[in-house]
Amino acid sequence: MKFPNYALGLFTGFCLAGLYFIIPGIIESFQHSPEPQKMQSTFQVVDNYEGCDVVRWNNPMLAEYKYFVKCPK
Length: 73
Fold this sequence. Notes:
This protein is of the alpha+beta class. It contains one helix and three strands, in the order αβββ.
């Protein structure tokens, strides 16, 4: 099947226009790469149970809290 010349011209034009708008964005993204974020875990004493501290631990990468008990010896 042979395509008409205008169809090939439209296809070529769309491809070149796409490259014209996409390539600068790709180049800019490599030049301004953000620095990796430091993960900071947070520990917070939330309660006291029989002389021990109940500590809540939160990791920003996880959507949950973990709890543990810290007792002085």
